[in-house]
What does this fold into?
Amino acid sequence: MARYSKEIWPDLPTIIRGWPAYLKGYQYKYLDAAWAQYHERLGPIDAFIEKNVREAKEVGLELVAGLNLLGGGGKDGLPGYSGGNGKRNAMSASQIRSWGSRYLDEPYICAFLMWSYQADYVNRADIKAALEEISQKARSYPTKKCRR
It folds into this structure.
């Protein structure tokens, strides 16, 4: 798909929703970036970011970063927003601030996104304030293309 997309739109960034570790062992002529979406169960965010940046560099790809807002909060998150079995908690406002800020301190990341949307969640005053803080920080992030 990356090759096909580049044939039609040569300047289109091609991104796979997969961690750089999954992509080791191959040369990617048409793929531009991998995606590392954080969830609390993946361990400390610093180690997660460092590992994914290192591995993205090793495979010669840029890195898109993200937060799993509705299902990534772990035991300290907010219950009641995740679908399915209800065992996953949404990220709290402090988690969004902390983890989002940490991602936005990493210069190798070419894009930052937040995964999933639910109006009840994003309209909470604490979540709305945290998202606005991260949004302000993202606006000052240096522009970087997600193309190699």
